[in-house]
Amino acid sequence: LAIPKIKYSFRFADKDNIYLGKREGVTTVPPGRAFVVFERGIEFGSGAPVYTTFQFTEIPNWLNVDETKINQLQLFVSNINLEKETESPHLSLSLKNKSLFNIPNMNVVAILYDEDFNALNVSSTYVDNLGGEEEKILDFTWPLPFGKTVVNREILPIFNIFEVQLK
User: Fold this and answer.
1) By percentage, how much of the chain surpasses pLDDT 70?
2) What is the largest CA-CA distance in the chain?
């Protein structure tokens, strides 16, 4: 099962649980795997968020996905390279579509973790189309160092499986 489109809301509060703002959007939920909802550039003025809540703001419309399609759709991440961690970090990787499916409108999210498996930072890049059997080199950048050592990386390609078509 997967959700092709669903609305969500993030709400933010400071250390005294005073409301700082919210961010709303629309995402997709893939079948049977981890996914992330990524929002960039959230401003809080002089407030500092300590608490965040997330919720889907509508009833999900779960749809069946052909198991054959799920099994054949194979994305592989390789050659992950993080450089300049103490300056202006840069992460590069190779994303290969080993299937015969064209995947349009994909966000690829990189999450970097410290030794306690706390997320240090996140970045996202957009791939307008990854053709069947195609490979692309992707880059992620951050303007400032993280302050801690990155010990683990998670790369999550996010796309609507209902938009994926055979080439």
Assistant:
1) 100
2) 53
